Hints:
Chain A is mainly α. Chain A is built from 28 helices and 4 strands. In chain A, the strands form 2 sheets. In chain A, strands 1-2 form a two-stranded antiparallel sheet. Chain A has a two-stranded antiparallel sheet with strand order 3-4. Chain A is globular and about 120 Å long. The model of chain A has no long low-confidence stretch (mean pLDDT 87). Chain B is mostly helical. Chain B has one domain. Chain B has helices at 6-20, 26-56, 59-64, 92-111, 119-138, 142-153, 155-163, 168-197, 204-207, 214-231, 240-247, 250-275, 277-303, 308-328, 332-363, 379-392, 399-413, 420-449, 466-484, 487-512, and strands spanning 71-79, 84-90. In chain B, strands 1-2 form a two-stranded antiparallel ribbon. In chain B, α4 packs antiparallel against α5.
Amino acid sequence: MRNAWLVPGIPFFSFLIVGLFIRPLSEKAAGWVATAALFVSAFFAYSIAWDYFSHFGIGHEGPALVPWAFEWLRYQDHLTATIGTLIDPISILLMVVVTTVSALVHLYSIGYMAGDDGYGRYFTFLNLFSFSMLGLVVAPNIVQMFVCWELVGVSSFLLIGYYYRKPSAVAAGKKAFIVTRFADLGFLIGILILGYFGIEAFPHIGAKIQQEMAGLSSIPIQAIDFAFINHPATAHYILTTAGTVLGLSTLAVACILIFMGCAGKSAMFPLHIWLPDAMEGPTPVSALIHAATMVVAGVYLVARLFPSFAAAGTPLDVVAFIGTFTCAFAAIIACTQDDIKRVLAFSTLSQLGYMMLALGVATAVSPLGHTASMFHLFTHAFFKALLFLAAGALIHGVHSNEIWDMGGLRKKLPVTHLTFLAATLAIAGVPPLSGFFSKDEILRAAVENHHPIVFGVALFVAGLTAFYMFRIYFISFWGDARSEKAEHAHEAPAVMLIPLIALALLAIFAGFVPMGEYLGTSHGGHHGIHWNIAIPATLAGLIGIALSAFMYTGTRERYVAVARALGGMYTVVKNKFYVDEVYLFVTKNIIFHYIARPIAWFDRHIVDGAINLYAWLTGALGRGLKPLQTGQVQTYSAWWISGAVFFIILLWMKLS
Amino acid sequence: MGLISWYVVIPAATAFAITLVPKAKPMAIRWVASTGGFLLVLLSAIVSVKYWNLAAADIELLRTSMFTKLYMVEQWTWFKSIGIEYFVGVDGISVLMLDLTAIIIFTGSLASWYVTERPKEFFALLYTLVTGVFGVFVSFDLFLFFVFYEVAVLPMYLLIGIWGTGPRNYSALKLTLMLLMGSAGLLVGILALYHGSGIHSFNLIELSKIHFPEAFQLWVFPIIFVGFGVLGAIFPLHTWSPDGHASAPTAVSMLHAGVLMKLGGYGCLRVAIYLMPEGAIYWAMFFMALATVNILYGSLGAIKQKDLKYFTAYSSVSHCGFVLFGLLALNLMGIKGAVIQMFSHGIMTGLFFGLIGMVYGRTHTRMIPEMGGLAKVMPWLASAFYIGGLASLGLPGLSGFIAESHVFLGGFFGNQWHDITLMRTLTILATLSIVVTAVYVLRGLATVFHSTITNPEFEKLTDATLPEKISTGVLIAALAIGGMLPWLFVDLIEGSIFPFLNRLHESGMISSL
């Protein structure tokens, strides 16, 4: 496991080599080298998973190892940011997911991006992203997490704005970066708080934790390591000594602030606005970054800090609330969108909501939701990446994103059709595909921890998910071709179909992985299917599918009538509840007009005006005195004599 | 002559050599100038490595020392009767600043490759100016320090007045007068220290052995701090900076924003905080609040700027705020962050001004709304601009993050003398700038480089030439090395920061008695 650093390391070196040396020489080679790097990295990820689980066994919680680390940045004593690899079940899970999806997306991109003039640049950025994401996954401390967190953000920015001549793509990249950056402000302040109290606690409990960590880590423990932050003693120390802020414990405040960062990255309401726009990027990028990997970073960080969140209590309620709300909110919008990628983006939001709410309903004693969330992250990565890649094949064939331009494509694109169908069934929660199992776990977690409202919403959204997913499925693949382009659509090349088939197999079978065993939280006897939950959930899905089939396979009048019946409500939903407009108003009108512009004016006219006034006064004084300098000896001597007389009088008065 | 004196000799000799080259041979002038710059980079590399080896052995000693330990010292009496010495040497902080200056003057010379108006005088003045800058960073005699300081400030007037653009006379005069106003205060402060010490010496190390009375420190500290602070663009005395930078030619902007503004922060630390720790403790919160204004106000002011140079100048005002902010946190992380920020901002802003010059040389406009889509015709310059922009918004992997994270931690962790709630409030206000910076950097750059080309004239423009590529490449490499291998910085400067902290702690104890 010592070679775990190779998993992020290989994409990193490949990024440098491809970016600096190969790209200028051959664009084509750049693509293949970048892709090969990810396959090698995936190989190492699997070998680490194999080593770890064959060494420590499954069915109980495995240890968190830091087999490789070095001192990167020494802030002060006990506050050194290390760069290292943390190996524990959830980091292995993420490593496997990220390398698998990334390798397949790289391969797919060779076909999808062929002939694009930024081909080499594209693969360089894709490597950069993979490296950053893997670095984030294996981060043993919160600073490495933050560093990689920002790096995935910037790779996402670069790839969303990849078509840089297209103003909408540039705007979308900017928006994504700035919104997540705003959220990261919370993350940063959260780190500052945890760092401060970590350092305060360190003299009391550092030695003890160090002792417990003996043999697990290759480097002394620091106050910003997850092993330290998550330790019960640390939480206890902060809860007992740090006092409260606005009625919340300091630990809760720190966790909520960090959750703000997570909500930005995972696009939770109200910070979700960047994700639908991010679809301006190339479709494989949407599959990798904005569906399978980067957007789950927020979920992952909450899972990573779960012991702290659970110890503080309140933050988990916030997570559950935001997760549940986003889950329903996004699903409702998804029913009305016409751009296939946007529908998938809202669907991603909704599924991320599921993952968040699952974490939110978990508790320290009953961490079922934690397992469920990771399980859903795992299955979602495959079926959602597949949905995007299949959508990419559709777009590639039809040259349009609009579902109303498609239609009848099941015969022209048979492989795409079948893989898309598999993914749609998986996300709809139809047994025995992967989504069914993970959604079942989430619903069960909500029931077992007594969150009836969360359960109710989640069940409703399960039906809604099936409805909107089959809506786009029926519109694009059934009926007649609705446009000239759809008439002449053609199947994608093999290099694109292979990843589709691989992901389809994963989307179908990933549900059979006994996730609870691997994560060590199953507590025996609990796993398997729970019919009391599986039956209503499946029914909800089937109702959604049936409704969708009824509305979208027949004549146009049916759904038009429904839309008309809903009237204003439909318009509001179609416009995404006008959240974007609110943001635009706040930034454009308030920040730019009423803050930035007045400041620029204030600086030019008041601050600088004061300086210029001072200069003018000096000048005026000089000009005022200038007439005295006449050059006439008579005047000078007159002044001199009057001065002398004045002083003599003064002296005389003093003397007398 | 020791190694350190070469820092003064090389640029002075380069300036002199340039005056000997015939006017008709501009190529020769460029080569002489660039060679001088290159030699300085080489010298810096040698000195850095040497310092490293020497100081590594002393790290334990430095942790408890009350006095800055100098290496590679050269000390000769100059005016014995009034205690002036030629006293030069380095500690870790000055080594980092020397590295910065060498990199900037080298890349600045390359970036000025295409100066056509009187290149001979231009380069000669440039190297005279940089002689002063190097001199400041190596001298530990306050008189010598002041002399070099003035040498660094004065040629600026000519460089802006003759080679500048726009309202150059106004800007040059404004810049010079405002900075001289600062140095007038500085002179008063230095003389006060000289007389107040009672030892009739300008030797900084000797002066630091004197404990100045608290009442004395309370009035001299702000004079010296503001004197240097003007050069560090402290609010509200920063307005020379946007005008001055906007009018200055490329290499001068690079040097000025890149290095000269660092003299401000350097002087605040080296003279004001070092000699008057009680004054520093007393005044810290006042100036820290001003630095917070700098950080936020500069970044908000940058959003609405239309001229690329004003845009960068306001960004500099914001980033220089981090230097002062970190220093005034008066703890290890704050001061370390401030010193790293000096380096990081120097390189970054040097890169920005260099690039602006290169873009302006092609488009003949600096107005952001008039440009658009330039990435297509100048991919190298666009990428370089983006890397600089990302460094400026504190992206990890580039040096800005290392500096800013230190400063934030320093501010948030506070110190034992000041109200921690106040310091945290100021820190949180300062962190807001990371969002604002992202807004203005991405807005500005996206407008200039992205979308489609707005002006058909721009279709014919060309990308960077070889000297320009070397110049920007070196600066980018420095940003990346700083960001990816930060322990190099930390190892270099940390030992030299302990004496400052030890002095603060001791005087903090005295004043609380």
